[in-house]
């Protein structure tokens, strides 16, 4: 495994630059020090939210999927649904009823067990118009879900989402749906901490420690600076989460992103929109430049062999 940055350029520093560095080091001594991240990712615009029920951008979804997992997750290379918080599931003969079985070792990063009550709450919350989930329609394939969203049904028990017991969830659809398992991987259907939301309302993401159901937990979110994530040691698949600390930088400028990568500040630049178009032909010839097709959409990135979100 390559553990160093795949590409870097060093140039002699000017006196002005050296003086700038000296000042930064002097004043930096007055600031709170923190350990360096194992990997630094340039991820586009500043996130509008880290609430998986309301995010709409791909760059935001990357972060929320690291923090909050659903019943299933997409396997990275093949983009196919594989077990997440649910270790297995059954499908009725008519294809309309799915029964999911949660892992016995699925717990929040704060130690409390994750139960089917958390799943039911999370899905009904996404269907609540007050949440303002743009992708609430992803749940309309479930029996009475659209009627509940529209206020035509007030009783949530009539929605086809039932906690049979703490680890068994029954979901009834309006009709058979070939891609329902893929929908269960979508961020809107991720499991969020109902206790934290009950305590803090719209400010629940400010709670520390913030309970997370995914492979990482939130250390800090500093606007126009970075989002820092830390490995969740209680995640059910933590043994396969390779990086302890991950920094995600909100850089929207392609030239700025490339400069940070080439000078060794960042390890990964995601997305074709963060690659200078005038340099694309030349950059595509480099060994650290990769393209891949994900669900029919091409992405470009500079990459090293370490993967930041192995379980997301």
Question: Your description of this structure?
Answer:
With 312 residues, this protein is of the alpha+beta class. Helices cover 21% and strands 21% of the residues. It has helices at 15-28, 58-67, 116-127, 145-149, 180-183, 194-200, 254-262, 280-283; strands at 39-42, 72-74, 81-83, 86-91, 97-102, 161-165, 168-172, 216-222, 226-231, 245-249, 268-270, 289-294, 297-302. The strands form three sheets. A seven-stranded mixed β-sheet has the order 8-9-10-1-11-13-12, with helices on both faces. Strands 4-5-7-6 form a four-stranded antiparallel β-sheet, with helices on one face. It has a two-stranded antiparallel sheet with strand order 2-3. The longest helix is centred in the N-terminal third of the chain and has 14 residues, at 15-28.
Features of this protein?
globular, 312 residues, 13 strands, four-stranded antiparallel β-sheet, alpha+beta, disordered C terminus
Secondary-structure blueprint of this entry?
Elements: H1 15-28, E1 39-42, H2 58-67, E2 72-74, E3 81-83, E4 86-91, E5 97-102, H3 116-127, H4 145-149, E6 161-165, E7 168-172, H5 180-183, H6 194-200, E8 216-222, E9 226-231, E10 245-249, H7 254-262, E11 268-270, H8 280-283, E12 289-294, E13 297-302
Parallel strand pairs: 1-10, 1-11
Antiparallel strand pairs: 2-3, 4-5, 5-7, 6-7, 8-9, 9-10, 11-13, 12-13
